[in-house]
Design brief:
By secondary structure, the protein is α/β, with parallel strands linked by helices. The chain is 49% helix and 16% strand. This is YtoQ family protein.
Amino acid sequence: MTMKVYLSGEIHTDWREQIIEGSKDLDVAFSSPVTNHAASDDCGVAILGDEPNKFWHDHKSAKVNAIRTRHGIENADIVVVRFGEKYKQWNAAFDAGMAAALGKSLIVLSQPDHQHPLKEVHAAALAVAEEPRQVVEILNYVLSGKLP
């Protein structure tokens, strides 16, 4: 049976591509939020109509994006949440919380210097990795029982 993995979080680096490429020989299907920043920011008004107030502009997009995010997390066997270096990813923390609340297997991908600010998120995770390669190794181990 194909394992479904949802890749959530930071969109400014190629971590998703590294995991997908490293997992090409595994029986894994990946999904993720929309990673085109402009599309994600503007999907609500592009689909549902303009909003002169930025709050409502963002509100519409957040709700449209939430349809995809909820579907991806609810249907995943494993949720990987990446916290990048440059920006505070409030959405990633929310996704990690949602995954934990749904009882999903959660892998957090973050930098060592984020250990303290992410301590509660790390505590909810079944694994905390620092490199995309480690996520691939976890997926391989879970599927095959083989160590790297």
